[in-house]
Amino acid sequence: MSLKKELKQLKNDGKWIELMDAIHDAMPFLFSPGRPTHEQIENSEIGRTHHENWSEYIRWELDWNDSGWRAWIRAYKVVLAYPYLRKLDVTASIINIRKSMLDTFPDSAEQWREQEIKVRDKKPRKRSPNTEERLLILEKKIATMSFEIQDLKCQIYQ
Which tens digit of pLDDT belongs to each residue from 8-47? Predict the structure, then answer.
């Protein structure tokens, strides 16, 4: 499968981390500060498809945009720094929001889960106290169970 087809498929399947991994493997210069050299562009998928830059490539070949790319690369850099995020089913958006909200980013999946519960607990609610209390208990149970399910999935695939 060509790189372009692989990238499109991953994007369409919502596998954003795998998409970023594929881009990182094929064109690591995109993750470095500064502009890529003319030679890097020409010798990459970008040049092979007759585009002059990454923005043009993602717009025409992947039906994507610069702002989406910038958001995903920010989140991907967090994933590279905190590899446990690969095992959690989190979006780039959630990672970026959490990164901007927190003074210190969670170092483990367990700390992530604890933070998730704290964030949910802080959300304003407009329900009766009894309903509120029941809902909070159920949300905590759901959060705990979903993390247990995710851990079991990770164990199965290891």
Answer: 888 777 789 999 999 999 999 999 999 999 999 999 999 9
CB 64 within 8 A of CB 16: no
Say yes or no: 58 and 88 in one domain: no
Tokens of 8: 């499109």
Q: Are 90 and 147 in contact (CB under 8 A)?
A: no
Do 60 and 3 fall into the same domain? yes
pTM of the model: 0.71
CB atoms < 10 A from the CB of 18, how many?
16
User: Is residue 131 a part of any domain in this protein?
Assistant: yes
User: Is the domain of 60 the same as that of 87?
Assistant: no
